[in-house]
Amino acid sequence: MNVYLSAVSPVPNELGLAIPGDLPFFEVLLVTAFVLHIVFVNILVAGSVSAVYNEIKGIVRKDALADKLAFHLATQVSIVKSIAIVLGIAPLLIISTIYTQYFYSSTILIGKMWLMLIPLLILAFLSLYAYKFSWEKLKRRRKLHLTFGIAGALILLFVPLLFITNVVSMLHPELWEPGRGFWLSLFAYPTIWQRYLHFMAASFSMLGVYIYWWGNRSSQRHGEEVTFRAKTFGKGMAAGFTLLQLLAGPLLLFSMNSVVRHAFMGGSFFHTALLALAIVLAIVLCVVLIRLVREDSRRRFLIAVVLLLVVLSLMSWIRHEVREIQLAPYMERSPRNTVG
């Protein structure tokens, strides 16, 4: 395989490996796999932070219900973490198949930190295991117990930056510099921190809906008081962070390059309509969640779940379209081939 660099582009301009199938099929599969993966990642990241928050709240305010809710959040985190990892394999393999020249190049540029991904996740999961399973044993040693939870949560807050930096780097071959590395890349590429804010807001929105569902489902098993607290905590979080999404989304859009902004702001009917539909449904979702905060309703909750999943799917497809728009000039020089 010839991997020399073109004089006009840093992207390897010849790739001997063809995409093993139909490209549109792989694109749909990529978006679908990403949606399934990100739902559990959202719950994992926000759940670990929320567990620590509620335990600290329980200690400071001597609130036994907050402590119980923290324990149940830690339990849910221990369940979803394995699902999040397994479901992450498919989108990672597919994106490396469709965008081989871009993804592998950007991965090499942050290679040292990318190789730290597995050790970091192992350390995070071990910390969260210790956090959950030592809950009763370390009742009298709360600082030590919190150390496990805080360590796991901080690592999980950091790991998304590795992925975001990688996928943003692959969109900007013109900014590639071999000696830059991960830490300088955090501030060298546009949209990294805007994407991170968008991701975090989405994570807490998803967790809020999930915890409200858990509270409804578990009222008889865990008692009315703790599940009522879970439902109140969940719907308030979902509404607040979904409203934050209405700020994070425009910040992300306006941080993108002019070609992308033009396509999604009137330059392309398809892209503009896609974004407009996502925004309208997000606003409707906010209204439904605010009404749910004021008064519990099974019907409103089901509507909120459907709207959230639809908005998430639309945002994931928009993410894919942004990738296609930004890489289009490079693909003209180095087109993708498929197996016929």
Describe the structure.
By secondary structure, the chain is mostly helical. The chain is built from 13 helices and no strands. Helix 2 crosses helix 3 (100-109) and helix 11 (258-267) crosses helix 12.
- Number of DSSP-assigned strands: 0
Tally of separate helices: 13
Tell me the major beta sheet.
none
- Give the percentage of residues in beta strands: under 5%
Q: How would the global form be characterised? A: globular
Question: Order of helices and strands, N to C?
Answer: HHHHHHHHHHHHH
Arithmetic mean pLDDT: 91
Features:
mainly alpha; 13 helices; disordered N terminus; single chain; 81% helix; 340 residues
What's the gist of this structure?
With 340 residues, this protein is mainly alpha-helical.
SSE arrangement:
Blueprint: H1 23-61, H2 64-98, H3 100-109, H4 111-115, H5 117-133, H6 142-169, H7 181-188, H8 192-217, H9 219-222, H10 224-255, H11 258-267, H12 269-294, H13 298-333
Helix pairs in contact: 1-2, 1-6, 1-8, 1-13, 2-3, 2-5, 2-10, 5-6, 6-8, 8-10, 10-12, 11-12, 12-13
